[in-house]
From TrEMBL, chains A, B:
Keywords associated with the record: DNA damage, DNA recombination, DNA repair, Metal-binding, Zinc, Zinc-finger
HAMAP family in UniProt: RecR
Family designation: Belongs to the RecR family.
Purpose of the protein: May play a role in DNA repair. It seems to be involved in an RecBC-independent recombinational process of DNA repair. It may act with RecF and RecO.
Native species: Pseudohaliea rubra DSM 19751
Pfam families, alphabetized: RecR_C, RecR_HhH, RecR_ZnF, Toprim_4
SUPFAM superfamilies from the UniProt entry: Recombination protein RecR (SSF111304)
Record's protein name: Recombination protein RecR
Any single biological process term in GO: DNA repair
GO MF terms, alphabetically ordered: DNA binding; zinc ion binding
Name of the gene: recR
Zinc finger (C4-type) residue numbers: 56-71
All copies of domain Toprim, residue ranges: 79-174
Length: 199, 199
C-alpha cells in the first residue's frame, strides 16, 4: 500500500515493545511528515547503541565502557551488593535514591522451563565477586514473582557458605496504597512480614 | 544514570509520537537486552526512509519514486480525484477498498492561525491537476473538523470555476454505531443529511 521504504520502516518499528501495526504506521508517518531530523538522530542512536553497548564486566549492567559508572564510583560502598533482574530495576532503585551500595544485574531469572540455568544469569561470576571483593551484605531484590522468588532462594543457598549477610527487600502494602485495593497475596505477605512496633 | 549511548538512545526514542520517558526507556532496554538485530534493522530503515522518501509529483503522497504507485496504476480512474489531508487517510480509504479513483494529499489543512495558506497545502498544484488532467469529479474527504470543513469549502469555491463535479463524503452515524452513544453534532448532521428512501 505504501512505498517499499515506508513499508520497511513500518515493519521495522514493530520490533519496539508495545508497538502494533497501527502505532507503527502512525510513528512512521509522523517521522516522515514532521520530524525527519528526529528520524536521522534516532537511526544514529540506535546504530551506535546496538553496536557499542555491552555489559559491565563487574555487575553485568548495560554500558559501553568495560566497567559501568556505578561500579567505577569510589563513593559507592563495595561491601553491599544488591542483586536485581534487569537494568530497569537498577534505574528504579537509583531514582528512588538512598541506596549507596553496588549492584549485580542477573539479566533475567532462573527458569528451568525456558532452559535458563545459573550460568545464564551469571551466578558463577556473582559468587566469585562475593568471595573475592569483600562483599559483606547481599540484598536480594529480584521480583516477587514465582521465578524471582525461586532465584532469590537459589542465591540464598548458593552464597550461604561464603558467610555473607543475606537479606530480601520487604514486600507488602505499597506506600500511599489503600488496603481495600491491595490484592490478597500482598496483604497476606504484609501480615506474615509484620514488624514489631513500640513507643 | 545510564551510560551515554543508552541515554542518547532513550532521548532519541522520545521523538516517536506517544512515547514518553518511561516507554522510551523500556524500548531502549528491550532492544539492547533482547533484540539487537531489530535495532540495527530499524536504524537502517529509518535512515533509508528519512533520506529517500519524498512526495509524489502528482498527488503529494509519500513515496520514494517520482510518482507514487497509485498515480502510476493505469487501472485507477484518472477522472475521479479524492482530496485527503494525510497519507494515513489514503491508507484508510485503500484498506476499506472499493474506491478506484486517484488521490490528492494536502499534507495538512488550511489554518490561517498557524500561517498555513493555500500554497502550503498544494492547492495551486491541485488546481493545475484538475484543469489539465481530465478530472471530472473531485471528492472532498478532508476531516469533519473546523479546519477540514473550512478547507473543503475553500476547495469548493476554488474549483467551481473549472466546471468539475464536486462532492463531500457523507458524515453521520457510523455503521455498527448505536444512536445512544453518538454525539449530538454527528446526530444533527445525520438528520440534516438524510436521504430519501422508497420501496
Amino acid at each position: 500500500m505504501f512505498s517499499p521504504a515506508l513499508e520497511a520502516l513500518v515493519d521495522a518499528l514493530r520490533c519496539l515493545p508495545g508497538v502494533g501495526p497501527k502505532s507503527a504506521q502512525r510513528m512512521a508517518l509522523h517521522l516522515l511528515e514532521r520530524d525527519r531530523e528526529g528520524a536521522q538522530v534516532l537511526a544514529l542512536a540506535l546504530g551506535e547503541a546496538a553496536e557499542r553497548v555491552g555489559r559491565c564486566q563487574r555487575c553485568r549492567n548495560l554500558t559501553e565502557a568495560p566497567v559501568c559508572a556505578i561500579c567505577e564510583d569510589p563513593r559507592r560502598e563495595a561491601a553491599v551488593l544488591c542483586v536485581v533482574e534487569t537494568p530497569a530495576d537498577v534505574l528504579a532503585i537509583e531514582q528512588a535514591g538512598g541506596y549507596r551500595g553496588r549492584y549485580f544485574v542477573l539479566m533475567g531469572h532462573l527458569s528451568p522451563i525456558d532452559g535458563i540455568g545459573p550460568e545464564d544469569i551469571g551466578l558463577d561470576r556473582l559468587q566469585t565477586l562475593v568471595q573475592e571483593q569483600g562483599v559483606e551484605e547481599v540484598i536480594l531484590a529480584t521480583n516477587p514473582t514465582a521465578e524471582g522468588e525461586a532465584t532469590a532462594w537459589y542465591l540464598t543457598d548458593l552464597l550461604a557458605a561464603d558467610g555473607v549477610r543475606m537479606s530480601r527487600i520487604a514486600h507488602g502494602v505499597p506506600l500511599g496504597g489503600e488496603l481495600e485495593y491491595v490484592d490478597g497475596n500482598t496483604l497476606m505477605h504484609a501480615f506474615s512480614g509484620r514488624l514489631p512496633v513500640s513507643r
